[in-house]
Give the backbone structure.
Amino acid sequence: MAPGNTIASLKKALALGVDIVEFDVHVTADDVAILNHNATIMDVEGDKHPIALSEYKNLKNYKPSLATLDQALDVVDGTVPAYIEVKLGVDVEPVVRILESYKHKYFLGSKSQRTLIELDDRLPNIQKIVIETWSGVRARRRARQLNTRLVCMYQLFLWSGFIIAMKHSGYELYAYTVNNPRKARQWAKYGLAGVVTDYPDRFKN
């Protein structure tokens, strides 16, 4: 519906009345927190530039739609909570500095336990989401370490019995990326709390 991790996509999601907006964060060499899924940005010639080794102004030239974390938060402006995935290997300090200056509701997630622990040390009052690909055992162990009940797992590794077990154990389980409303409704009957989707328009009542 719009390029992911851009201001246009956030505005589109808000216009569709989503419950939460989700986006990914990396940090540039000059400590600018930006929205991007991959750890690199490609220029027009097809060359990939590592975000962690590049300055923001140069990356912006390669990708004019590149948004900063503070720009994204200004657009959301507390309309709905923001679910912010801090990517692997990211320096959390620039992210922390920005979030400390915003007072709206956020969730911080990562596939990296080390990253989540660092964020929890600096921002203990912001809820953490354990993002796990396939291992329910590891997801629960990580959640216990962080004292959180929020877990988000890759939908291909979920099944009804596991969803029921997580619900009965007191976890709030989410699935990514689910673009089939029928599957989401079926899993909701077993106790799935919600889904991350590319197509929020399909889930409108």
About this structure: The chain has a mean pLDDT of 97. The chain has two domains: 1-89+97-109, 126-205. The longest strand covers residues 21-27.
